[in-house]
Amino acid sequence: MSPEPTPPGGGLHCLVTGATGYIGGRLVPELLTAGHRVRALARSPLALRDHAWTDRAEVVRGDVTDAASVAAAMDGIDVAYYLVHALGTGKGFEETDRRAARIFGEQARAAGVRRIVYLGGLTPAGVPERELSPHLRSRAEVGRILLDSGVPTTVLRAAVIIGSGSASFEMLRYLTERLPVMITPRWVRTRIQPVAVRDVLRALTASADMPPDINRTFDIGGPDVLTYREMMLRYAAVAGLPRRLILPVPVLTPRLSALWVGLVTPVPGALARPLAESLRHEVVCRENDIARHVPEVPGHPLDFDTSVALALRRVREARVTTRWSSASVPGTPSDPLPTDPDWAGGSLYTDERERTVDAPVEELWRVVESIGGDNGWYSFPLGWAVRGQIDRLAGGVGLRRGRRDATRLRIGDSLDFWRVEEIEPGSLLRLRAEMRLPGLAWLELRCEPLGERRARYRQRALFHPHGLLGQAYWWSVAPFHAFVFGGMVRNITRAAAAGAGEPERSDDARKTGRAADRGTPPSTH
């Protein structure tokens, strides 16, 4: 299958996998700005619906472990970007990575793709691969598989990526901001060459135009080589924080390090552990050959302090376009909400409540859309905090992922331990639970106008239990629903009334808690 002709103006047709992730979601607009056409591959295309670039790119459904969907996505492609990995999917993630890379390389060769571009991890010099962390070892193996695919391949290898919303940046940020005095693992003495996300995107974009005879790895990094301790001290200086006292100790194993990071930062243990393990060895660039292929830009590559300052500015201005949590957490439920007309999936328990409020529907929606993160959940804060801690202890994401933007949501956004599954501005917010549960759960928040200065708020929690454990879970937490869900209804409408300058009314809420048996689903609202 031969690629489509290159469009006038020299633009290429690029396939981007991992477009719902941190790097992929930022690379697509960069490629479009560079004059290329983009096809984005996603397991759930709906998750990309609200991105600003969606109307300029083609979005297709597919999975890199499914050869047929990869083959279809490769049709007519010049450059294929491989920006996915199976980290966090369990003990077999290395085999999943291996299989996906082979499928990607084979289908790229069969489709006549001109180049593959892969972003991997920088590995330490002189360290046998068997001694690397599973995370770095798998990244290196994926790079080799793609280089051996028969398609000219560019493998970019980066260490710590500094950018608003990156896992590495948020780990650094929260450790430094929350702990003026730290007892730290010995890896804080390890030398690292961090790189700004802007420079990573520049290298990825420029790689599309590399000559056909190039098939190799390139190390990419910023101008500074620092220990993690120095990175924390310099972050504190840039952020205007008092100098931190850092006391390294030799007793914290990677597992304990991950627990420590998970306790202090929003990064869950499943992600914190490979990040910590990757810092055991020195990761410094051994060459800078990528500079021959990346157009020079004054001031680039960015130094560490500038990278941190830019990232902090983005955070403070609420202009974080993607976060480490942009991609769905592996192993969490992704099933769509059972639709009432045709769902026949067994029991579905619901808790439904509603309340009218003397406030315009726009004000009610403002409160609804700003829920979660620093704004909280409008009820029983201790209960929410405890549930978040239980989830983290069970290996889940917990309640500290927060939100990408303090006031605006889009489909696919992570929101504490929820994921935005559907949003109809001014009307509906539907969240899907990503906490560890013996079943599937959703929370729907609806706003309906009842006139110019009056609105109705409707709230529905749904739970589809898995087995006897799921049934037991629902009935064990049902007694607390009046505090949690009832409190949400009262406080959300109260906040809307206060925002509209109206006294809060005491209209009664309506609640139903029931199970819809197979073939008899609950009514819609």
UniProtKB/TrEMBL annotation:
Coiled coil: none annotated. Gene3D superfamilies: NAD(P)-binding Rossmann-like Domain. Residues 502-517 have a biased composition (Basic and acidic residues). Residues 497-525 are annotated as: Disordered. Residues 18-159 form the NAD(P)-binding domain. GO terms for cellular component: cytoplasm. CDD domains: SDR_a2 (cd05245). This is DUF2867 domain-containing protein. It comes from Streptomyces tsukubensis (strain DSM 42081 / NBRC 108919 / NRRL 18488 / 9993).
